[in-house]
Amino acid sequence: MKLFFITSNPGKVREAAKFFEPLKIEVIQLKREYPEIQADSLEEVVKFGIEWLKKEIDSPFFIEDSGLFIESLNGFPGVYSSYVYKTIGLDGILKLMEGIEDRKAYFKSVIGYYDGDVHIFSGVTWGRIANEKRGEGGFGYDPIFIPEGSEKTFAEMTTEEKNSLSHRGKALKAFFDWLKENI
Ligand SMILES: O=c1nc[nH]c2c1ncn2[C@H]1C[C@H](O)[C@@H](COP(=O)(O)OP(=O)(O)OP(=O)(O)O)O1
Ligand SMILES: [Mg+2]
C-alpha cells in the first residue's frame, strides 16, 4: 500500500516513512501548498487544509500539523510554531525561557487522512525545554525538547527512538490502528 503525505517538511516524511516501513506501507511525499489558517487548534488547521486540498487531489492523502506548547508561556508558540521557528527560532525560545524555572512543554501532532471522509488522529508527548540546544538529528525544535523520562533531546535520538516516544509516533500509531481495521 502507498500513502500520499502532503507536506513541505522532509523531517516529517522521514519519520512517517520509518514508522510505516516495517508495516510494508510506502509513504510518498507530495509537495502542495495549502493555507494554514490562524485557528485556535491544530485540528481546525488540518480540517481546513483537507477541505482545500481534496478538490485538487484524486487519491487518498494525509496531512499533519504539529506544534510545541510551552506551559509557562500559556501554550506559545502552539499553532504558530512554524512561524515562530522561522522568525525567532530556537535561540529566541531559549531567550524567552531565560530565568523561567517551569520548563514544562508538550508537542502535539494532528494527522488528517482523507479518503472521501475526513479522519483525525492525534498524539501528545510531554517533556521540558532544555537549557541549551543539544543534538544534530531530527528537525525544528528537536534540539531543545527533552521528552519525559529521557535525558536526551529529540535531536540526540535516532528516528526510531524519537518515533517510539514522540507525538508524531503516537498519531501515526493511531492512524495505523485505524487503517488496519478499515482498509
Ligand atoms: O517533532 C517535531 N520536532 C521538532 N519540531 C517540530 C516537530 N513537529 C513539529 N515541529 C515544528 C516544525 C514547525 O516549525 C512547526 C510545525 O509546523 P507545521 O506547519 O506542522 O509543519 P511544517 O510547516 O514544517 O510542514 P508542513 O508543510 O507539513 O506544514 O513545529
Ligand atoms: Mg506548515
From TrEMBL:
Keyword annotations: Hydrolase, Magnesium, Metal-binding, Nucleotide metabolism, Nucleotide-binding
Necessary cofactors: Mg(2+)
Biological process terms in GO annotation: nucleotide metabolic process; purine nucleoside triphosphate catabolic process
Entry annotation: catalytic residues: D65 (proton acceptor)
The record's free-text note on cofactor binding: Binds 1 Mg(2+) ion per subunit.
SUPFAM superfamilies referenced in this protein's UniProt entry, alphabetically: ITPase-like
GO cellular component: cytoplasm
One GO molecular-function entry: dITP diphosphatase activity
Catalytically driven reaction(s): ITP + H2O = IMP + diphosphate + H(+); dITP + H2O = dIMP + diphosphate + H(+); XTP + H2O = XMP + diphosphate + H(+)
Chain positions recorded as substrate binding sites: T7, S8, N9, P10, G11, K12, S66, F139, G140, Y141, D142, K162, H167, R168
Top-level lineage group: Archaea
Main enzyme class: hydrolase
EC number: 3.6.1.66
Chain positions recorded as Mg(2+) binding sites: E36, D65
InterPro entries on file: dITP/XTP_pyrophosphatase, ITPase-like_fam, RdgB/HAM1
Keyword check for Transmembrane helix: no
Subunit structure as annotated in this protein's UniProt entry: Homodimer.
Entry similarity comment: Belongs to the HAM1 NTPase family.
Primary role: Pyrophosphatase that catalyzes the hydrolysis of nucleoside triphosphates to their monophosphate derivatives, with a high preference for the non-canonical purine nucleotides XTP (xanthosine triphosphate), dITP (deoxyinosine triphosphate) and ITP. Seems to function as a house-cleaning enzyme that removes non-canonical purine nucleotides from the nucleotide pool, thus preventing their incorporation into DNA/RNA and avoiding chromosomal lesions.
Name of the protein in question: dITP/XTP pyrophosphatase
